[in-house]
Amino acid sequence: MAGASREHTLKLAAIGTLAGIFSGLFGVGGGTVIVPLLIFWFGYGERLATGTSLGAIVLIGLLGALAQGGLYGNVHLATGLLLSIPAIAGVVMGTAIQQRISQRAVSLLFAALLIGIAIELILK
Amino acid sequence: MDILIAALIAIAGGLAGGLVGVGGGILFVPALTIFLGLSQVEGESTSLLMIVIVALVGAYRQSSYGNLELRDALIIGALSPLGVLIGVVVANEVSQRTLELSFAALALYIAYGLVRRVLSEEA
Description:
The complex is a heterodimer of chains A (124) and B (123).
Chain A: H1 2-26, H2 31-42, H3 46-72, H4 77-98, H5 103-123
Helix pairs in contact in A: 1-2, 2-3
Chain B: H1 2-20, H2 25-35, H3 40-64, H4 70-78, H5 80-93, H6 96-122
């Protein structure tokens, strides 16, 4: 059990590092890496994977925002807070809708999002 | 008008966050830069602030639905700075186009893995 737990922690560490690399490389929050790896490596259900990903993103984004805001003054606080109001409405709706659709549908939505990102990047 | 479009894009970003567990920055950045006139670096930085707020609310909602492994989330988040550092260094060594194409290839590969998994569960 201790061995399994250590392996679990090591895999989490790998996911954290990979998510960080992606965040640093591409300026994204890391959710695109965290969600599929939690599903593939731990067999997490889609809902658990996306919920846990959001929890991790809080920390990842906080560190980035503090660095950008605190060190470089690049964060527009008022604009960000104002635009967060509709975004919060969106995330509350999104999580509520997610509880009512199948986990497979969540995977397919995620795949569609990834394909959209790939097309956008290729056409750039 | 622009602020209305920005608000609608922000709702869409939040929806994506709630539905598939990403931060929504992919949509927040263009909302901030194209419609609210921020520069790219200001847009990305301000987007990070929005991501934190959206992810916090989303994680809280998911935890009330029983969908949050807090310990796992904290370990992933706490270990990300090392990766960020590696990523920033690599990003400055490799051409932008190489980065874009490699990210596109990886996104397609992950999408393929997810779809294959869904199809094999159905079989």
